[in-house]
Amino acid sequence: MESRKSVIESSLLAQIKESRDVKQRVLDDPTCLHSLQSACDMALACYQGGGKLLIAGNGGSAADAQHIAGELVSRFFFDRPSLPAIALTTDSSIMTAIGNDYGYEYLFSRQIEGNGQQGDLFLAITTSGNSPNIIEGIAAAKKKNMQVIGLTGEKGGKMASLCDVCIKIPSTVTPRIQEGHILVGHLLCDYIEKSMFTPEV
Questions:
Q1: Residue 3 and residue 156: Cα distance in Å, rounded?
Q2: Which run of H or of E encompasses 150?
Q3: Which of 77, 51, 67, 42 is nearest to 198 (CA)?
Q4: Cα angle at 15 between 14 and 21, to 5 degrees?
Q5: What is the pLDDT of residue 198?
Q6: CA 121 to CA 111: how far, in whole Å?
Q7: Hey, what CATH topology would domain 14-196 get?
Q8: Rounded CA gap, 182 and 155, in Å?
Q9: What are phi and psi of 129, to 5 degrees?
Q10: Region 179-201 average pLDDT
Q11: With contact defined as beta carbons under 8 Å apart, do 146 and 121 qualify?
Q12: How, if at all, do strands 85-87 and 165-169 pair?
């Protein structure tokens, strides 16, 4: 009979392998890779045109939104001018006011209505693809003539048909999807940074 320690160790190894396998499926999926390239080109065009990124998600996806915004505003691989990116998940006064006055489903759409403009890009993150406040955010972005990149899981959910580009991480397991999302976020940051700036030597 396996000891508790060996059972835990087996579970840890299984999850590492599962994470690796999801990334391998991304590598092997031409549709996913094409969506990734399209998203990179869209984000680069947004910045080259003087726009900014608005990023949103719930829970772990909210943390991803803040992580990605931090890499763009500060730096990723090397020193360069700051890039405008706003995580719509960070201002507690705004979020509680909207939640109290309008409802949680309008948490992001209200901010996009106030802060978004044509030429900006909305990066919408939801593992299910069905988060009501993300769906409302996409609708608000479209009213502003903004483009939308969606990050979700393999099922796509409601958001899949609403985004200009939707990257579906090939998994139905929330932690594995989230790991794929932050990988995509890092790839976006790397592509934008290297395309726009020459690293100092």
A1: 40
A2: strand 147-153
A3: 77
A4: 90
A5: 84
A6: 13
A7: Rossmann fold (3.40.50)
A8: 18
A9: 80, 5
A10: 93
A11: yes
A12: unpaired
Q: Strand 53-56: give its sheet, edge to edge.
A: 85-87, 53-56, 121-125, 147-153, 165-169
Q: Report the mean per-residue pLDDT for the chain.
A: 96
Taking phi first (over 0 means left), then psi (-120 to 50 degrees means alpha), and beta for anything else, what does residue 34 get?
alpha
Single pTM value for the model? 0.94
Q: Note the pLDDT tens digit of each residue in 18-47.
A: 999 999 999 999 999 999 999 999 999 999
**CA-based nearest residue to 175, from 7, 69, 22:** 22
Q: For residue range 78-105, list pLDDT tens digits in order.
A: 999 999 999 999 999 999 999 999 999 9
96 phi/psi in degrees, rounded to 5:
-75, -35
Q: What is the 3-state secondary structure (H, E, C) of 51-80?
A: CCEEEECCCHHHHHHHHHHHHHHCCCCCCC
CA 119 – CA 57 distance, rounded (Å):
21
Q: Where are the beta strands (DSSP E) in 159-201?
A: 165-169
Per the listing, tokens 């409302």 go with 136
